[in-house]
Design brief:
Blueprint (H helix, E strand, L loop, with lengths): L7 H50 L3 H21 L3 H6 L6 H20 L1 H10 L7 E2 L2 E2 L2 H25 L8 H34 L6 E9 L9 E11 L2 E8 L15 H7 L2 H4 L10 H16 L5 E6 L2 H9 L2 E3 L2 E3 L4 H12 L3 H21 L3 H13 L3 E5 L2 H8 L14 E9 L9 E12 L2 E12 L5 H4 L2 H4 L11 E8 L4 E8 L7 E5 L2 E10 L4 E10 L7 E5 L7 E4 L7
Parallel strand pairs: 3-6, 10-18, 11-19
Antiparallel strand pairs: 1-2, 3-4, 4-5, 6-9, 7-8, 10-13, 11-12, 12-17, 13-16, 14-17, 15-16
């Protein structure tokens, strides 16, 4: 007869199941409570970070120190709440696990940045007014830069490491609200790494580049985005700047007619010749077609030295669109018969001037006057904080490129976005679109582009698809309503009002094109290797209002990476870049 009790084995099984259930309930409650606390702390970090940036920009170091302490406290709390064994154990679970891992990784990154980057930045801010970089009355005080370089080097290294780790978090594997938070954090860390990296570069480069150790001469090449070239636009006005003891002066101005075409071209790389033949080596205005500014910079310097004889220590290339940012800092600018404001300067320089002043030589003179007036106003009249903000915004848009003839300086520049070198794939994969006008006019004021990337698998191979939609948005009667200088009036074989453009698409390092089409049809293309990147180029002819869609699929090493960055030629209107679901063209 049974005494009503379960066998010992069954009782132990029930007890075991009960203990496990209780443990799971407690564990879920534990991580839920700690998770809510961690999220609240991370939200405080985000809010205080925005206020910290504003305080540093205003030079209010007392307030900045207060926000820094608040950030450090909340970041440390978030890290503590998400680093215990139970939380880390939940990170190993299928499906939900990546969400826990992402939160703990975000909290750890925030803690590291708060403890190892904020303090050095504030130390630098205490030694140098970060809102002005020591700029006053046209000169920069170079003395503090050597003092702050070690602190900024430490902060820059921390932020670079944090950016790499942040980019390694698979946001797509997390729930939508958390994915948005991860991407927001990525953006914040990337922006901080960029700003502090630029400050560190400035602290290392500015003293020598601005003549603390001896006078320097720089060629300033101004690019016109209404006639596109790879790095922004055709070279128009050119000037020589002199830097000595932190003071910059304008020494000489010139224009393209001062540089006749060469019978024997400057030697060019194989990739440049494959894409553009020897035209950049013959014509000064085409040197910015060269995709890599580490090649274009010394070529521009050589043309100046051969023409005028002065030694050149470096080249600075800027585009016309950045004048909008500069005029916002300087206020209205008067040159020739014109007065430009922040809202009108781009339209005036890239469009209206051609109708108002038909003579190309007179246009060149006015462009030179505009460049001289803008440089003078920037160095003597602009509020330093506004000027630094304008230069920072222009650099973020890749509208400034710098090459130095001094190897130690060029090593730092070429590794930064200012150096204009072709990108290298690391934690992020890069693809790019280069645009070069062959219309011979200034029709790219009316150009528009959208760039779409798609990542996935086609025919069993990891694939990165790049789609470029190129549009001629000129008015329907452009052939007759626009000045002949703008349309080129058919001089180079393009009907007035139409545009002809070389559209170059390059893929990830090590990947090769597996499919190429234009408007759904396969067409002939030029090909080249840009380092270890495959590039394909097509010539596109469009009448006013027409568009063309180019699609290139890349397969091989580097293809199919989710963290894919799109680089492109700076245009008057920046292209819209989007990510879409992959639909294999093949």
């Amino acid at each position: 007869m049974s005494d009503g009790r379960l066998p010992v084995r069954r009782r132990w099984l029930r007890w075991t199941i009960g203990v496990i259930v209780i443990f799971l309930v407690l564990a879920v409650g534990w991580v839920a409570i700690r998770g809510i606390g961690a999220v609240n702390n991370l939200q405080e970090v985000a809010a205080s970070s925005s206020k910290l940036k504003q305080a540093i920009g205003q030079g209010d170091l007392e307030k900045a120190a207060s926000f820094s302490s608040r950030i450090a406290h909340h970041a440390e709390s978030a890290h503590d709440l998400t680093s215990d064994p139970i939380w880390l154990g939940f990170g190993l679970l299928p499906w939900l696990g990546p969400n826990f891992s992402a939160v703990s990784e975000v909290a750890e990154i925030a803690d590291d940045v708060a403890s190892d980057a904020l303090v050095p930045v504030l130390e630098a801010a205490d030694s140098l007014d970060l809102a002005s970089l020591g700029l006053s009355s046209g000169a920069i005080d170079l003395t503090p830069f050597a003092q702050i370089e070690p602190s900024l080097a430490e902060a820059s290294a921390t932020l670079t490491s944090a950016e790499t780790r942040a980019l390694g978090i698979d946001a797509d594997a997390t729930l939508p609200p958390l994915a948005d938070a991860v991407r927001e954090m990525r953006t914040t860390v990337t922006q901080a790494a960029t700003v502090v990296g630029a400050l560190h570069g400035a602290s290392a480069l500015l003293p020598s580049m601005l003549g603390a150790e001896g006078p320097r001469n720089y060629v300033l090449a101004m690019q016109n985005n209404a006639e596109l070239r790879s790095s922004g636009g055709i070279i128009g006005a050119i000037a020589l700047l002199h830097a000595e003891n932190g003071r910059i002066t304008l020494v000489q101005q010139a224009s393209v007619p001062d540089f006749p075409a060469l019978e024997t071209p400057i030697p060019l790389s194989e990739s440049t010749v494959a894409l553009f033949e020897d035209r950049p080596g013959r014509y000064m205005q085409n040197l910015t077609s060269i995709p890599d500014f580490t090649e274009a910079g010394p070529a521009i310097a050589k043309r100046w030295q051969d023409r005028f004889g002065q030694p050149v220590d470096g080249v600075i290339a800027v585009d016309a669109v950045m004048t909008e940012n500069l005029v916002a800092a300087t206020g209205p600018l008067a040159f020739g018969p014109f007065t430009a404001t922040e809202d009108t300067v781009v339209d005036l320089l890239l469009s209206e001037i051609y109708a108002a002043v038909p003579d190309p030589l007179a246009q060149d003179e006015i462009f030179s006057q505009a460049a001289g007036a803008l440089l003078s106003a920037a160095l003597t009249e602009a509020d330093p904080k506004d000027l630094v903000a304008a230069l920072s915004a222009s650099a973020d848009e890749r509208r400034i490129r710098i090459w130095s003839a001094h190897e130690d300086e060029e090593a730092i520049l070429s590794a930064s976005s200012l150096g204009g070198a072709l990108p290298e794939d690391d934690t992020r994969t890069h693809v790019g679109v280069l645009l070069n006008d062959t219309t011979g006019g200034k029709m790219d004021f009316y150009a528009d582009a959208t760039i779409t990337t798609s990542i996935g698998t086609c025919d069993g191979e990891q694939t990165t698809q790049v789609t470029v939609t190129w549009t001629n948005d000129a008015p329907a009667d452009a052939g007759t309503s626009l000045p002949p200088y703008v349309t080129a009036d058919g001089f180079y074989g393009v009907p007035a009002g139409s545009t002809r453009t070389l559209v170059t698409v390059y893929g990830p390092e090590g990947a090769t094109p597996s499919h190429i089409d234009r408007d759904g049809e396969e067409v002939g293309v030029q090909t080249a290797l840009l380092g270890s990147r495959s590039a394909v180029q097509q010539e596109v002819l469009l009448a006013p209002g027409e568009s063309s869609k180019i699609t290139v699929e890349f397969q091989g090493t580097g293809a199919g990476e989710r963290l894919t960055v799109v680089d492109h030629t700076p245009m008057v209107n920046s292209p819209e870049t989007t990510r879409e679901q992959l639909r294999c063209a093949s």
